[in-house]
């Protein structure tokens, strides 16, 4: 299978973050050296750096950093590996291409990351074999459609932009804190100067990198593309024959939600569709 529309959209919607990071890297390189070729070299190396996320050892390190994961114990692997191999055999996929992990979480969940990582939570290991296979088939669907690889690359390339936002935000907080101290001790001029400096920092960041303005605006679209990816992974698992089993798992999740309602904002920014909607689509064969 090839990357589907949701994976492609995830990459396209991540372009503003990539361009923002590109500007940040170029600015930092310019501060280090005024030589043009050095700046271009640093920028070029950063653009190419995304390729290291394809290296298995690097992916393992990133997986440990991004998620609280560990390798399965012998007992866990004895249970997990045959089920994973069964799913891969059904999908006609080489199971050895992927690495199995256990997430240190008490929640019932599983996820795919990068190009090779498949993880389940400790609680998921207690599911009946067929239910656990259905969840693994869903995660395999993410890999086969390119969702996990696109997400890892998007995360990697937005790091410089996120770092710049964090640094400026911290500087603004410190400046505003100092301004509030001036105001508390009766120095209106000091308070006004601090407030103006905080605004200058904000305007300066946007002026140097206007792409940052698009990042929060695209967040709902990014979330929408991820929800499409969940539907696609469900459909892939159903295509492998795990549709009814996946419905059983999702029905258990739906019961645990106790009919909780989500606000419009939460629904727009959610990376996963409503459980009831996923069940309806699976039953309808979509």
Automatic annotation (TrEMBL):
Cofactor(s) in the UniProt record: Zn(2+)
Entry keyword set: Cell membrane, Hydrolase, Membrane, Metal-binding, Metalloprotease, Protease, Transmembrane, Transmembrane helix, Zinc
Database matches in InterPro entries: HtpX_protease, Peptidase_M48
Cofactor note: Binds 1 zinc ion per subunit.
Domain Peptidase M48: 80-284
Transmembrane regions: 7-32, 38-62, 163-185, 191-218
Domain of life: Bacteria
Alphabetical list of Gene3D superfamilies matching this protein: Metalloproteases ('zincins'), catalytic domain
PANTHER family the UniProt entry points to: PROTEASE HTPX, PROTEASE HTPX HOMOLOG
Membership in a protein family: Belongs to the peptidase M48 family.
UniProt name for this protein: STE24 endopeptidase
Species name: Actinokineospora diospyrosa
């Amino acid at each position: 299978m090839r990357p589907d529309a949701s994976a492609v959209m995830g990459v396209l919607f991540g372009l503003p973050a990539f361009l923002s990071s590109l500007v940040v890297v170029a600015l930092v390189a310019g501060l280090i050296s005024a030589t043009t070729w050095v700046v271009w070299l640093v920028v070029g190396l950063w653009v190419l750096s995304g390729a290291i996320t394809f290296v298995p050892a690097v992916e393992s390190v990133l997986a440990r950093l991004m998620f609280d994961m560990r390798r399965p114990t012998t007992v866990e692997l004895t249970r997990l590996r045959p089920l994973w191999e069964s799913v891969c055999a059904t999908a006609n996929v080489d199971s050895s291409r992927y690495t199995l992990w256990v997430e240190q979480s008490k929640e019932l969940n599983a996820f795919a990351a990068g190009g090779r990582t498949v993880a389940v939570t400790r609680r998921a290991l207690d599911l009946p074999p067929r239910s656990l296979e259905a969840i693994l088939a869903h995660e395999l669907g993410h890999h086969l459609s390119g969702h996990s690889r696109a997400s890892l690359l998007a995360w990697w390339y937005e790091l410089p932009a996120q770092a710049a936002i964090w640094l400026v935000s911290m500087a603004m907080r410190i400046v505003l804190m100092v301004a509030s101290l001036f105001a508390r001790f009766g120095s209106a001029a000091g308070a006004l100067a601090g407030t103006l400096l905080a605004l200058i920092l904000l305007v300066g960041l946007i002026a140097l990198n206007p792409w940052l303005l698009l990042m929060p605006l695209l967040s709902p679209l990014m979330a929408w593309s991820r929800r499409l990816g969940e539907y696609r992974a469900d459909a892939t698992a159903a295509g492998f024959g795990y549709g009814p089993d996946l419905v059983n798992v999702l029905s258990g999740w739906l019961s645990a939600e106790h009919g909780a309602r989500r606000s419009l904002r939460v629904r727009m920014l959610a990376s996963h569709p409503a459980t009831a909607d996923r069940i309806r689509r699976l039953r309808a064969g979509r």
